[in-house]
Amino acid sequence: MDYMGVINPFIAVRQLSMAFAGTDVQHHIDFFNKAEEYRNNMMDRLNRRELEIAVSGKVKVNNQDFYSRFPDFNYRYPAAGSVIRDHTIAILSLFLWTLILIFSFRLIIKRNNF
Fold first, then answer.
1. CA-CA distance, 80 to 19, in Å (whole number)?
2. What is the pLDDT of residues 66-96, one digit of tens each?
3. Stated pTM of the model
4. Rounded to whole angstroms, what are the CA distances from 92 to 2, 79, 102, 114?
């Protein structure tokens, strides 16, 4: 979609606004990957605990201590620099459209002798 911003500047503006709001595809994929990594780590810890309980033969275990040591899932948004780096085509297309508009206005003004 960033390449379509060269044809239509409204698409470039939409892509950039979604990126800076954190609702674009790159943010979705980043969140999914980090959540999947957290889930896999949690599942590994649970599986290791179940294996330890099965090997030791414990009948009663303290679940509160085990679950209280689990870290909370904290998602950190990517930095603004990475958003700009991911959408350089959209930014460049907006600069191109700005230059085209400035050139067009100058041409119109010269032709009409304003």
1. 9
2. 888 889 999 998 888 988 999 999 999 999 9
3. 0.73
4. 10, 20, 15, 31
